[in-house]
Amino acid sequence: MTFNRKQKLRDNIEAIRTAFTLDREGRTPTERERVLLGRYCGFGGLKCILNPARELTDAVHWAKSDLELFAPTVELHRIIRENSRDDMEYKRYTDSLKASVLTAFYTPQPVTDTIADVLHDRKVRPNLVLEPSAGIGAFISPVLSNNLQAEVMAFEKDLLTGKMLGHLYPQQKIRTEGFEKIEKSFLNHFDLAISNIPFGDIAVFDAEYEKKSVMHRIAAKKVHTYFFLKGLDAVRDGGIVAFITSQNVLNTEGNGGTRYLMMKQADLLSAIRLPNNLFSENANTEVGCDLIILQKNERKEELSEEDRLFTRTVRSNHTGLVTNEYFLDHPERIIHTETKRDTDPYGKPAMIYTHSGGVEGIAMDLYKMLSEDLSVRLDLERYNGIGHEKPETRQNIAVQSSGVEVKRENSLSGTDELTDAKREENRVQPQARPAKATAHTVETGHPEAPVMDLYDLFGYTQEERRLAERGLKPERKKGSKSKPKKPVQASLFVLPEDGTGMEADKGKTEAGAAITPEEAKEMEEIIRGTAEVEAAPVETTAPKAEDRIPLQEDGDPEDAVYRSLDWETNPPINGFYETMMSLTPEQRAELRRLGKTKMEANAVKRTVGTSEAQREKVHVGKIEEPQGTAATAVYPIENGFEAERDRRIAEVEKALRAEEAALTPEERQRKREEEMMPRPYSRPLEPHLKDGSLAWVHTQGVRYQVGVLKDVTRYGATFHPLDMEGMQKEKAQLYISMRDTYERLYAQEAERQEANDMLRRHLNTYYDEFTMRYGCLNARQNVKLLMMDASGRNMLALERSEGGTMVKADIFDHPVSFSQETTVMAESPEEALSASLNRYGGVNLPYMESLCDMARTDMLEALKGRVYYNPLAEGYEIADRFIAGNVVVKAREMEEWVKGHEGDEMMPQAREALEALRENIPEQIPFEDLDFNFGERWIPTGVYAAYMSRLFDTDVKIGYSESLDEYSVACSHRTMKITDEFLVKGYYRHYDGMHLLKHALHNTCPDMMKKVGEDENGNDIKARDSEGIQLANAKIDEIRNGFTEWLEEQSPEFKKRLTDMYNNKFNCFVRPKYDGSHQTFPGLDLKGLGITDLYPSQKDCIWMLKQNGGGIADHEVGTGKTLIMCVSAHEMKRLGLVHKPMIIGLKANVREIAETYRKAYPNARVLYASEKDFEAANRVRFFNDIRNNDWDCVIMSHDQFGKIPQSPELQQRILQAELDTVEENLEVLRSQGKDVSRAMLRGLEKRKFNLTAKLEKVEHAIKSRTDDVADFRQMGIDHLFVDESHQFKNLTFNTRHDRVAGLGNSEGSQKALNLLFAIRTIQERTGKDLGATFLSGTTISNSLTELYLLFKYLRPKELERQDIRCFDAWAAIFAKKTTDFEFNVTNNIVQKERFRYFIKVPELAAFYNEITDYRTAEDVGVDRPDKNEVLHNIPPTPDQEYFIKQLMEFAKTGDATLLGRLPLSETEEKAKMLIATDYARKMALDMRMIDPEYEDHPDNKASHCAKTIAEYYRKYDEQLGTQFVFSDLGTYQPGGWSVYTEIKRKLVEDYGIPAHEIRFIQECKSEKSRKAVIEAMNEGYVRVLFGSTSMLGTGVNAQRRAVAIHHLDTPWRPSDLAQRDGRAVRKGNEIAKLYADNKVDVIIYAVEKSLDSYKFNLLHCKQTFISQLKSGAMGARTIDEGAMDEKSGMNFSEYMAILSGNTDLLDKAKLEKHIASLEGERKSFNKGKRESELKLECKTGELRNNQATIAAMTEDWEKFTAAAQTDKEGNRLNLLKIDGLDSTDEKEIGKRLQEIAKNAATGGQYKRIGELYGFPIEVVSEPTLRDGLEFTDNRFVVAGNYRYNYNNGHLAMVDTHAAATNFLNALEKIPGIIDQYKKKNEVLGLEIPQLQAIAGKVWKKEDELKQLKSELAALDRKIQLELAQPTLEGVEKEETAKQVKPIMENAPQIHDVASNRILTKDFTTDHVVSGRPDFQISDKNKSKGIKM
Q1: Which residues, in sequence order, are CB contacts of 1628 under 8 Å at separation 6+?
Q2: Mean pLDDT value of segment 761-788
Q3: Cα dihedral across residues 1808, 1810, 1814, 1818: positive or negative
Q4: Could you write out the DSSP letters of every residue in 1887-1902?
């Protein structure tokens, strides 16, 4: 049968369709559906399904041979897409298809049947089967057909195939995951592992193998070698591994170690090489493979010779072939009919074996070989577990075994006699050493005798037993008589038929069997193998045929009950049945026979001379009562007849003890040891059970055992008994019952969101009983027991301490996992409205009426302006929702409704609502004010295509993929503008206009490289081509900038459409107006807070948060955010808007938050996390306190919050989504080939690697989750208040802009990711955005790009609605990237990119403000002092002067030794300017920061600061004025020198300030000490407090006496500066208000020629514009952020200029940089222009030549047509004349020409041989090479103005007519040639004008360059004049710097001491550009100094 691709694909499609149908309908397949599923064969050999097949147009990309499969492939993808929940699932399915194409080669059924049949024929009947790579189940079917009771565990990694497999075998354990996921509990477990395993150099990660030997780790690097070792691990001793695998396992030389490990632990049963055409019919592929069958042998001591052959390979030096030595020794084990030497699919030499008989022929040969191998090598005794390792059991079935052995001996060859002799020796050995056999019995774990339990006692049927074991109550009739029951699990023994069987007397127990204890002991001896069996020959011990019970196959009815046993669905009820379960059917049959013989003998003894006592003992165990006696009613325990239960339990216990008393001490010890051995856990495995959980199981009768669970998986667990007795065991059992009840209660209530009163009553009952008997759970005597359990910490949290007494947690009284509906009482219509919104999601007037007892009309009147009637929603809506969002669309829809519903009774209300909408529609933004970026996603691609079509003079098409955020471009043909004008030539490749267009759309630049040399291997050494990149960037900018100009040229109609589109998308939103003045805040203790009322701003913010369910409280420091947080949390809880809120804040102020909450609400139930709560020993308990109690609020620090485990499942989903995005980006980048940044590619690959590692870590945590820690999802937190939220700004995001500065780390931090996980958990629960409230005075700390991350946290759905799915899409709309090219120290041009400009700022602000309440201190009206900024200039010290020179030299040369340090490493070289910047900062602070050897100087910054501090200290000494000193460099270190300690020393020694009044915040090691210092500062005991921004900048309310703040250094971010100033400039500053004119002086210390003042100016400007954005008070639509970059330091030119001390040099450096950039651009322009001129000259010459050629050819054609003669039909006659031939016969002429063609030799000269119509005929001989030899090639032409030929001048050598007409044909080609030249001229005619236009272009920036050069010359002159005129300016500066006199004005000021200038805060209000260090105030009379 040949491979039919179309039929295979059709079968697969139908199977997939069927599987999805079964999934959807939730049922098992019918027979027909099973057939359809079974036809699935994967997609091996169907590579075409990977081609695009979404639309019909995709067919053009398909090969012609595959087109017949196009339609089915489209159908396949459609089916999968329709049945996928989302794109992520569809992607997983398509990935499955891709994997299937490469790996799915399913084994033909005849081969799998053959392997299974041979095993079955050899008595291998596996009950537990492993299929590690199941495919569609080719091996499962034959295995199950041979043994229906077999249990199969199958692994299949492929998603679709696993789905088919699950439907085909629903009763089996089908796992859609890799084999490496198998749990420990399934190792040494299976009887048979059988599969066609995968192969390839694919590594498998197995944590266990990482811990094993090197060979195991090497084996795990290849999937096929790993499967063999892991398969051997999984089967038990004697178990069989049968794998089909590639020949690489045996043939690869590097696999020798793996083969050795295989042979070390297993015996080789068979190795057969299968032919290469095995898979040809199934998968259309040829691959060599082997069948290897091994039998595990744990006691193997050494390798046999065949084993050694198996481990070795031989390589042929002649052919290069590598072959396993086993097949060299056993060539007969290669199945084939033909063989040849060829190569394998990888091109390596290989022997190719084929079989002409097809699959059936292969199967026949395989059956023969396999049968022969197994008959000789299979150790059936080892397989059955009776022989080598268990000799004592072997003796029990000696008769049977002997029979088997004799049969085997007949088939053994002579070479195996030694083996048989050894086996015989092993068989006899146990008889000689019975003691050893007994000892070994203990190891087997078999109990000693059949024992019944409670189920037998009460006569439960098997179905009732199963129900009871699952915790369900069997349905049994009350009061009915107990009928004789068949034993639940059949007796081992055949009962006699004479009526002396098993009858029960009234009131007697059924625990005993119908045999005496002596008989039971005898039966036990039979089982154990210790009975005395006569050592007679085999013939004498064999029973007679009529006495023997024939060995039954699977149909033996007496054996059915044991065959039905399994650990999953029908576990053995005690050790007896477990023993029987472990035996083979043959062993059980033999035991039954022996048992029957023994019982018959005993019956005879009893009839002859049994005593009366013995008779009575026999009758105790009878089942049936004597005739005429009524049976006693037997009730299940659950019926509650406790007296009957207790009596029967006592009887059972008595019988068990009597039985134990009859045992010898050795037997009792052995039994005890067996009971303590680990075994499978038999009870139902509940979800809360994990590794380490305590559990109890029934043992025998009414007895039970307590133990610990290990190796817990979803398939089972191992029970490890604990040695517990008496009260300890009872306590443990009661605790376990209580724990299970608690876990069930919490899980059910959390899942169903409804109370479970029954389970709660049970929990209370168990707890009350436990505490009554043993004390509370947390009592010392109980904690030890509870901590033995994995969930013990959870259980300890079921109690909490109140007043020193342990009380029950809230879960005992009501649910804590969700909020129960409670009766809400509203005190006003506004509260009724809020409650209605919470419960119904809208305005429910009847409900509101019921809450506040007010008529509807009165209520609506009271709420006028708060609610509006919305006819589209058919009801009222709150104003905050109605007049919000896209009001333009709402108004349009309302107008349509009003027009169509005239006369409606609600028309007045509708008109009122419509009018309100119209009043709130935003004012339209005109076209002239709009900013457009080329590549904005909202602009239709047709607009871009129209622009580019005009620019490129050709039809350009542009497409956009939303899912990939990717543009695609195409053009109809490439014009000169594409190939010339917009061409950039690189060393390795050229970029034409279409390439640059794509970069322009994405706002990226090509990463061009050039060759700079070669390494020792001759490989290119590459470097970035800066010149090429600069030119490409210039052309990209030309495309992008031209777009705006093109838009300006369009028609007014076009502009209006574009304007409307923009306004409707971005300028249609209205921020709701929140007015919270109506709120009364029940329960708020204003008196306790010490205030009369909340600020109106606080009320408005609280109302916004309540309405929106969260948002951003962007309030300036000191405006009361803490109280907003506390009141909002309590109000939302009170109104039921949230159930369990959580507040997280900085460690420094979280205690203050908790105190504020308690003051505000004294009776609130607040859980505050102390440091002790988060110690390792207490953390879990604290988490469970959160989980189990109904708190009003939970408060903790950021760090503590980070320790809360997040839901692993949620982490998995979020990380998978991030990974999918990265993979999509990688796919796009790789599809672009070389046209992509390698850094970007590497960055994405690294990010993918990191995300994959995180994902694997989370998956591992999910799989191995063993601890008892409650995660965030389980805690029930449903709202987060995040104080100082800017601490979490470093969130992960994806971007193409890998070289753009200022974006931060796209990897993000784990801290931010944890917060994202938590917020997503809440958002998933609510189905809405927000779910959290961010509070910070610096929500945007450094750049507007941080806005995107805020939206990613809080507004993911809204971003998606705007089609913003990634950072790049957001940046394309709101940001503009700038690219600067500057010279570095080596004079190379360096590219620096940054998102510097932000456009559409008002719309961006509106999007931010929609969820934000922004207030400054002035807005709030906070009574706080003003800020008076003083810039204190300090001249450099001599040491600093010298070091500045060294720094400048270092910046030039990179010589680090100049700074007194070791030379820079390679890594440090790249960060040289960052190092230089860091050194400059340290130098400015104090030289001792660089080297402790430097000495103090009276004019350094520490001295100036100490002097200034002392002045303020004296000035406000009477008022005990306090001061803050900030420095992030040189912070306090105990015992070491620091700037802090140096200033303190000066203050104490030089100025006499007491040391105890000067403190460092770093000295406070605890919250208590920190609080004490703050209080001491407020009281005036501490007068000066030092600290860093992080430790002192937040959470310190010590402002009461603050008069000054000193900044020793300037932080990098504006937000840090604001946080510092906020310590004193805040409400509650009494001294500044009363004694300092309500101002606080802020002194900024700046050393001249350092970076201090430069950095301060940058920060000040940036902060101004961030504030303007937040307030919406922008004077323009664009912001320039400047170019500050904290990650890379300053650029070289700025650095050199600042250190020089002359800022004119900075201006000069910037001008030089700009000029150099423009000159480079001009150079590139001129170069391109010259190339265009040369090309124009070439094209013009070509046109002239073509015209001349056309004229000459036209002349020849006219001459020919004039001379040519025709026949009657008009055909031209061939009047050819050959010189020397008089004949005109064509045949003769043709022969002559052929002779000339063969013999002519003209020596390369054209030689005349005849003529045609006056045109000479010529031949030329040309030498040519063919196959390395030189030949002469004769070619013929017709000579005219040009030489014409036909057939390239070659004659037809077999056809004389064709040879003769060759020349006529050549002349007739002339018109066609002329047409070709004319077409070329047409193209040239189009290209030449384009080239003329290009060559005639003038560089547009020439005037700009001239202007810049003029400015540079003027600046040079100015600098020279300044240098030539020495002044006393430096002295004046120094004197002035010593006299710091703060100037007090009404507005905040900057006082420049050096220039004696005052700069007010609003000095930038009229400017749009920020961050420019050279920005100056227009002041003609200003003096020299730092330019502000």
Answers
A1: 1424, 1597, 1599, 1600
A2: 90
A3: negative
A4: HHHHHHHHHT---TTH
CB distance 1409 to 1113 below 8 Å: no
Q: In what order do the strands lie in the sheet with 1332-1335?
A: 1166-1168, 1193-1197, 1141-1145, 1279-1283, 1332-1335, 1111-1115, 1412-1415
CA separation for the pair 1988, 1972 (Å, rounded): 9
Q: What is the pTM of this model?
A: 0.47
Paired tokens of 392: 């004592």
Arithmetic mean of pLDDT over the chain? 75
Higher pLDDT, 390 or 211: 211
Give SS3 for 1663: helix
Strands 1389-1398 and 1679-1680: what pairing? antiparallel
For 342, the enclosing helix (H) or strand (E) is strand 338-343
Structure tokens at 433: 């050493």
Helix%, strand%, coil% for the chain, nearest 5: 50, 15, 35
Q: What are 1214-1273's pLDDT values in tens digits?
A: 667 667 766 666 666 566 554 455 555 666 666 677 667 767 766 665 555 444 566 777
Burial class (CB in 10 A: 0-12, 13-18, 19+), 361: middle
Q: What confidence tens digit (pLDDT) does each residue in 1849-1898 have? A: 888 888 888 888 888 898 888 999 999 989 888 888 887 887 787 777 77
* β partners of residue 241: 193, 294
Q: What is the 3-state secondary structure (H, E, C) of 797-816?
A: CCEEEECCEEEECHHHCCCC
Nearest of 486, 576, 470 to residue 523 by alpha carbon = 576
Residues 245 and 193: beta-carbon distance below 8 Å: no
**C-alpha 1359: how far from chain center:** 21
Q: Phi then psi for 1810, rounded to 5 degrees?
A: 165, -170
H helices present in 220-348, as ranges: 223-234, 248-251, 256-265, 280-283, 305-311, 325-329
Residue 1799, Cβ density class (10 Å: 0-12 exposed, 13-18 middle, ≥19 buried) = exposed
Residue partners of 1594: CB distance under 8 A and separation at least 6:
1146, 1148, 1149, 1284, 1619
Round to whole Å and give the CA distance between 737 and 20: 42
Please report where in the chains the tokens 């222009």 appear, as a residue.
Answer: 1729
CA 1669, CA 1679: separation in Å to the nearest integer?
A: 9
Q: Angle, to 10 degrees, between the axis of helix 1121-1134 and the axis of helix 1150-1160?
A: 50
Q: What is d(CA 1106, CA 1113) in angstroms, rounded to the nearest whole number?
A: 12
Residues 6+ apart with CB under 8 A from 1747: 1881
Q: How far apart are CA 1600 and CA 1619, in angstroms?
A: 17
Pairing of strands 716-721, 704-713: antiparallel
* Token reading at 943: 């607009």
At residue 1960, φ and ψ (nearest 5 deg) are: -80, 165
Interacting residues of 1499 by C-beta distance below 8 A, sequence separation 6+ = 1434, 1435, 1437, 1934
Q: Could you give the angle at which helices 1096-1108 and 1121-1134 cross, rounded to 10 degrees? A: 40
CA 1563 – CA 1586 distance, rounded (Å): 10
Q: How far apart are the first and last CA of the chain?
A: 88
Pairwise pLDDT comparison (1453 vs 410), residue with the higher score: 1453
Pair 798, 811: CB distance under 8 Å: yes
- What is the CB-side half-sphere exposure of residue 1662 using CA atoms within 13 A? 29
User: Is 139 in contact with 107 (CB distance < 8 Å)?
Assistant: yes
Rg (CA), the chain: 46
* 1686 DSSP 8-state letter: T
User: Could you give the count of Cα atoms lying within 13 Å of 135 in the half-sphere of its Cβ?
Assistant: 27
